[in-house]
Design goal:
Blueprint: E1 7-8, H1 18-22, H2 34-50, E2 58-64, H3 68-77, E3 84-89, H4 92-104, E4 108-112, H5 121-130, E5 134-140, E6 142-143, E7 148-149, H6 152-161, E8 165-169, E9 188-192, E10 203-209, H7 210-215, H8 228-238, H9 247-263, H10 265-286, E11 301-305, H11 314-323, E12 326-327, E13 329-330, E14 338-342, H12 349-365
Helix pairs in contact: 2-9, 3-4, 5-6, 10-12, 11-12
The protein binds pyridoxal-5'-phosphate.
Pyridoxal-5'-phosphate (PLP) is lined by residues 11-12, 66-68, 93, 140, 144, 169, 171-172, 192.
């Protein structure tokens, strides 16, 4: 079967290999069969192995849902009675975490920081000094809306110095940027199969400390479907997800993990960096400017400012590229017009070289000046 290969430069789902796509085509199976449980067990271990955890200390708990389900689960399940959540808020995804806490009506401290700079560790430290009832610190590793990379190792070190649990949303960095839960001071992290491992949508996972999950059995239960301990306990007892799993997505994830380990963590990260370099090279050639200084970027997302050109029209440029198999993505920065080019997925440098040819043609077709121009304040 011939499957058209699209190059997705959006922030996930990402371009997948044909072998991962085809892994979904399997005989129908009831996921309560032993045969299916035999897929889940090694998968749970592999997911821990990606962040270099020892499966004696760390475990993974799988959920059927997009990545946001993990944000919901950790925030509502890991807050002990009488404790406050503490969120470092510097982008759209940490903002989402704050919203989740509000929806649950949970007490929280929001440490607001600029979205285009590294957070001020002294500010965080002062908050921790002043409060003795913080249950966990929560920070987004890679703020996918801008491309900002937060210093989780330093924040985790700070949290642990005050005896506080460290939770980080690694949805858009896991299995891309090398992560080590011990070195990076992580108690809980999370991701989704459609991002780093280059699988399909609908499967998400939390990787975290077994001992804390066990302790959380006594925390208030605030959700039925989205409770971490309940799902963990069911896995431990039966080897299965509590409710119907995304069967075909799990087959695809199994294949994606096989391909992840055969590519190698370091090699994969080198490939993503090669892709980002090709993105940056093309931007430089066309005079495109980025919203964030390179020193604070993750290396996985580039936020490009709209050129100041009367003919610039994101939708027209998008449609031109889309018709030719390349998907570019709107930005997510309040008050600033940007679009994003992301280095996720099963793509390489050569795909980006082809992309820039198409993008340049899109500019020409729309009479947008090359090199692109920017006004004084950009
Ligand atoms: C993609 C992503 C999520 C999950 O988003 P969904 O739309 O639910 O898939 C969560 N956090 C970050 C940082 C992400 O990039």
């Amino acid at each position: 079967m011939e499957i058209k290969r699209n190059i997705l430069l959006n922030a996930g789902p990402s371009t997948t290999t044909d072998t991962v796509k085809m892994a979904q085509v399997v005989p129908d199976i009831c996921p309560r069969e032993k045969e299916f449980q035999e897929i889940m067990k090694p998968m749970r271990d592999d997911l821990v192995r990606i962040v270099h955890g020892d499966t004696k200390d760390y475990t993974s708990v799988l959920f059927c849902g997009s990545g946001t389900i993990c944000i919901d689960v950790v925030l509502n399940s890991l807050l002990a009675e009488g404790k406050k959540a503490c969120v470092i808020s510097n982008g759209a995804y940490s903002q989402r975490a704050v919203e989740v806490l509000k929806y649950y009506g949970l007490p929280h401290i929001e440490i607001k920081q600029p979205i285009d700079k590294l957070p001020d560790l002294t500010v965080i430290e002062n908050v921790l000094k002043e409060s003795d009832d913080i249950g966990y610190i929560y920070v987004t590793h890679h703020e996918t809306g801008t491309g900002l990379l937060n210093p989780i190792r330093d924040i985790g070190e700070l949290a642990h110095r005050f005896g506080i649990m460290m939770i980080t949303d690694t949805t858009s960095s896991y299995a891309m940027i090398p992560i080590d839960v011990y070195r990076d001071n992580i108690d809980f992290c999370m991701a989704s199969a459609q991002k780093g491992i280059m699988g399909m949508t609908g499967l998400s996972y939390i990787i975290g400390k077994r001992s804390i999950i066990e302790e959380s059995a006594n925390y208030p239960k605030r959700s039925y479907y989205c409770n971490l301990y309940m799902q963990f306990e069911y896995f431990e007892k039966t080897g299965e997800m509590h409710f119907t799993p995304p069967v075909q997505t799990i087959y695809a994830a199994r294949q994606a993990l096989k391909e992840y380990f055969s590519e190698g963590a370091e090699e994969k990260w080198a490939r993503h960096q090669r892709v980002m370099k090709a993105i940056h090279d093309g931007e430089a050639k066309l005079g495109l400017r980025e919203a964030l200084d390179i020193s604070v970027q993750s290396g996985l997302v580039s936020s490009v400012c709209y050129p100041d050109d009367p003919n610039w029209d994101f939708d027209k440029v998008h449609d031109y590229c889309y018709e030719r198999g390349f998907t570019i993505y709107p930005g997510k920065i309040d008050g600033r017009d940007t679009f994003r080019l992301c280095a996720l997925g099963a793509i390489d440098e050569s795909d980006i070289i082809e992309f820039w040819k198409v993008f340049e043609d899109a500019l020409k077709a729309n009479n947008i000046m090359i090199p692109t121009s920017y006004g004084e304040d950009n």
